[in-house]
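In the current project phase, the collection of sequences with tokenised folds has grown. A representative record is quoted in full directly below:
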Amino acid sequence: MAFVLAIMLAFCPAAPVGRAAPQEPVPPPRCDSPSAVVMDAVSGEVLFEKNARERRAPASVTKIMTLLLTLEDVAAGKVSLRDQVSCSVNAWEMGGTEVWAEPGEVMELEEWIKAVAVASANDASVILAEYIAGTEEAFVARMNQRARELGMVDTTFQNSHGLDEENHLTTAMDLAILSRAAVSVPHLLDYTKIYQTPFRGGKNELTNFNKLVVLYPGCDGLKTGYTDKAGYCISATAKDGDSRFIVVIMGAQTPDQRLADASRLLDWAFANFRSLPVLDEDQVVAQARVMKGKADTVTVVPERAFAVTLRRGQRGEVKQYVDIGKVIAPVAKGAAVGTITIEVDGEKVAQIPLVAKESVERASFLDYALRYFRAFTVGR
């Protein structure tokens, strides 16, 4: 009997660590930089902020928006990574950090993207802006429009590269919002996580200013920046399992201060919190019956993805309660058809609208006639 019990205990799963009582998070560490934010990139919850709404010059962290708009167009099929893109005189005249692009120099769009994401090249930023929107001015208008769409209420862009310019300002909070959008853009982090890469067919090599991509486990972006006006800035992100956190630092006095503050805040976030994805975008929740429709049912999905931030030690036990009302055709794609209530560890945390994934037209007399005829013939 003792031998049997020993075998049973050996193969029994250990009690889940998550069953432990949740612990109060340790207070945030020292942050010497004048402005900072820590955000859960999965849930969007802000975990720490310091002068987060203070408008400051962002320097080359601006280029996150330049990369976002460019790679969104790539994902949408409007442009291709293999497109041949040339350098204009306007791009050639840019100062600051650059890859010394020459007027008329032609490379694939992807090479110019790497020059921006890895080497923070101002000339390459203008090349991207002009290729995507025709002129840098038109591209900057798109930057500001996208900022408003994302809810970056304290941001005004004046250029695509981040060199100091009057009223080219944003905040640590807005940069965190931008960075959260950027991490979901296909392949953007594939470029920002590169530390070194050949350029111009191996004639040159690009090196990333963001040392965290080699020094911090799981760090895969996003962007550093520096000007005399901005100081040393960074928006950094790192991932471990389902958890991803973003740290924004603005106005650090030295690159070492920027690196130390970002590292300490990432350590604190991973030590005390974890991300819990609950609903994915386009996750099928139910098939709702449709009355008077050409189709008998419609696919029901959440209006948006949803996640929560848990303290380390919380169980994270999720319960979902679906409530779908009477659905009568016609049903438009995206129309609200019900709600899903989310409970985590017995506490209600959200109620998300449920919407129709596709449209359902109202059935005509002919549709009813055909339906009854099929029922009649199958019934025989």
